[in-house]
């Protein structure tokens, strides 16, 4: 996969990185547990979505050019997808 194809994923990951820094700051400031967990769940969802987007792009690439072969098979992508589920 080309890096340009994943620019939206990189943006999503940078946003999640900022959210995670916010969670760390909340913990250090002694914020309420429910608030921390809510924000942590948001970070987790953002990371999951980024992972799913990467796998979806990989599956699209495999479907477009199965003979090209970067070493990643559809079965490997399926296992990766299931590891996020």
TrEMBL record:
GO terms for molecular function: DNA binding; metal ion binding. This is Transcriptional regulator. Keywords: Copper. InterPro entries: Metal_Tscrpt_repr (IPR003735), Metal_Tscrpt_repr_sf (IPR038390). The keyword Protease does not apply. The keyword Transit peptide does not apply. Belongs to the CsoR family. GO terms for biological process: negative regulation of DNA-templated transcription. It comes from the Bacteria.
